[in-house]
């Protein structure tokens, strides 16, 4: 597996407003096909059981999905991502990293995320494990039941396939180890 790039690993912890996850955020650099399009990204990741849910641009709103894991595949421009905090949390506690076209970030159900700053042309494909339900959005606000959302997030199964490398990729083993499996 020497040709498999190991991802950057970032850890989040629960806050009063967002569940986050004990499963790490994984960032892979420059792993998408050189002809970056929505179609080439789909062709590269869908055989690994990660399917396109949509094509998106700068999304500055703190949010998380308690019912599915998600992969951001950057196909144009660049962005600064903030993970692990909601709008009511101390922003200095968030994890910040840059992404550019060709990179992907994979986060587990319950992990808060947003784009802080993006180039005007920033565009990404959102991909989800095959068979996952349509994502729901939660925004880390006082009125949301974080306990119930955390429980729902913990019950989302760990995918058997890494979005880039399939069965031989690092995601399933890293996440299973973090989950104590």
Automatic annotation (TrEMBL):
InterPro entries tied to this protein: RmlC-like_jellyroll, RmlC_Cupin_sf, YjiB-like
Signal peptide range: none
Protein name: Cupin type-1 domain-containing protein
């Amino acid at each position: 597996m020497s040709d498999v790039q190991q991802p950057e690993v970032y850890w989040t912890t629960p806050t009063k407003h967002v569940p986050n996850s004990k499963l790490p955020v994984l960032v892979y650099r420059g792993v998408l096909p050189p002809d970056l399009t929505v179609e080439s990204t789909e062709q590269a990741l869908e055989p690994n059981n990660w399917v396109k849910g949509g094509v998106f641009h700068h999304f500055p709103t703190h949010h998380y999905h308690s019912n599915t894991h998600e992969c951001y595949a950057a196909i144009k421009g660049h962005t600064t991502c903030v993970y692990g905090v909601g709008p009511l949390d101390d922003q200095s506690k968030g994890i910040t990293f840059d992404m550019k076209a060709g990179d992907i970030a994979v986060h587990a159900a319950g992990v808060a995320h947003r784009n802080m700053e993006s180039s005007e042309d920033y565009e990404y494909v959102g991909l989800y494990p095959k068979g996952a339900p349509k994502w729901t959005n939660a925004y880390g606000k006082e009125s949301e039941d974080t306990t119930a959302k955390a429980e729902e997030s913990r019950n989302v199964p760990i995918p058997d396939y890494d979005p880039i490398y399939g069965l031989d990729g690092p995601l399933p083993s890293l996440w299973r180890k973090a989950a104590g499996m």
